[in-house]
Amino acid sequence: MSAAKEKMTIRDLEPLICDADNMVDVLLNMMEVFAEVPDGNFVLTQSEGERLFFVTTIAEQMTRKVKDAYYETLGGQRVMIARDLAERANEAVEACHLKVRAERKEAQK
Asked: How many CB atoms lie within 10 A of CB 3?
């Protein structure tokens, strides 16, 4: 994704997954039609072969896009979780420091 686009979330993956699933369904339907072999040999016309190659290529591109988006989203989620944990740890350390300072002040009285 380009820097100009917003970060992708898990919910943003649904249309990519559905598109890829639909394209694989088209590919499967084509293969079922072409798999009906009357004499044991597959025979495709040039246009059928080109169409089959095109659909296969698009299906591969779409599934790669889904995979890349998934890992990008997962990576972003990991960064957000790590930042949140770091902030909580810093808050806990600061709270401990404040408590120690307060106890020292109380002990000095």
From this structure: 4
3-state secondary structure of 7: coil
Neighbours of 38 (CB within 10 A): 6
What pLDDT, in 10s, does the model give residues 25-50? 888 888 877 777 777 777 778 898 88
Confidence check: pLDDT of 57 > 50 = yes
d(CA 102, CA 96): 10
Burial of residue 20 (CB within 10 Å: 0-12, 13-18, 19+) is: buried
Query: How buried is 36 (Cβ within 10 angstroms: 0-12 exposed, 13-18 middle, 19+ buried)?
Result: exposed
Q: Would you say 52 and 34 are in contact if contact means Cβ atoms under 8 Å apart?
A: yes
The first and second tokens of residue 45, run together, are 């016309």
DSSP letter assigned to residue 11:
G
pTM of the complete model beyond 0.85: no
> How many other CB atoms sit within 10 Å of the CB of residue 59?
20
